[in-house]
Amino acid sequence: MHLLNTIGMSREQLDQLIESALRFKSGDDRSRPLEGRSVALVFFNPSLRTRASMQVGIYELGGNAVVLEPGGTSWTLEHRAGVVMDGDKTEHVAEFVRVLERYCVAIGVRTFAALKDWNEERTDPILNAFARYASVPIINLESAMHHPCQSLADMMTIREKLGTGRKRVVLTWAWHPKPLPMAVPNSFALAAAQMGHDLVIAHPPGYELDEELIEQLGNVEITNDIDAAFSGAEVIYAKSWGAKQFYGDADRDLATRAQYRSKWIVDEEKMARTNNAIFMHCLPVRRNVIVTDGVIDSTASVVIDEAENRLHVQKAIMASLLGG
Ligand code: CP
Fold first, then answer.
1. What is the DSSP string of 89-155?
2. Does pTM top 0.70 for this prediction?
3. Which protein residues touch ligand 1 with a CB less than 6 Å away?
4. Distances in Å between the alpha carbon of 316 and those of 21, 32, 34, 65, 282?
5. Tens digit of pLDDT for each residue in 240-287?
């Protein structure tokens, strides 16, 4: 009933969502399954694409979006069970969710990793607290560990640009001036593997993704050699993320990653070694840090189509969860 991640979803289920998204995009599907209904969108963190595309998508499906920002436009929220709430949190997720579902037929939640405690954050505690108390569908709008709406839009974009066949898909770490969460690379890697692509993950030593997630990917090539990874690639997906060993110690991560600046960037030289690869990134992206102007402004770049597809995929997800 919830969409928290794509773990356990079959290729057929992913294909069905992508095909539904393609029908929304082409205009073949103009259904309005949210007519007269409201969906809550809860943002603990900033957003451009997710917020705008969800609001527009809900409107286009006939519904109404209720946007809430805990600690900003709504009360600060506690998610832990059994705590004595004598600190700075005003309301518990238990009541927040149970009240909202009297008004709304689904709740979307964005809650990033704070990169403070790996063992805790890898369990997606805030998102799972919403799911625990909810009797309406919870839609993950990017949590500590997963961003399924993004990865489904990514898979849709690969299919649109390159067809339905198996492709050599490279997920590459990139240098960034601060450690970032792993939700996007986790979900991209998982969905690429589920779609049957030949997945290569390139990152410097120490920047391994979650071991349990890697096990779920099955046959995946992991390399510390960014140059070798680009050879023959048909998709280059760039993303930076923080090292799990340095959660709670950003300074050590920054000191470690300093050596990778200028080397771990997507540039024209590396793209020239690919098999005419498309360039993908979830956005927002730092130009000339993650990717050069020359690549993101080239015909290989599909980042704007990728962002557009968020709208169509999320309409497909909401129609699937809430239609009928
Ligand atoms: N890709 C993505 O989720 O963008 P926003 O953070 O702007 O929503």
1. --EEHHHHHHHHTTT-SEEEEE----SS-HHHHTT-HHHHHHHHH-SS-EEESS-SS--HHHHHHHH
2. yes
3. 47-50, 142, 150, 282-284
4. 5, 11, 12, 16, 19
5. 999 999 999 999 999 999 999 999 999 999 999 999 999 999 999 999
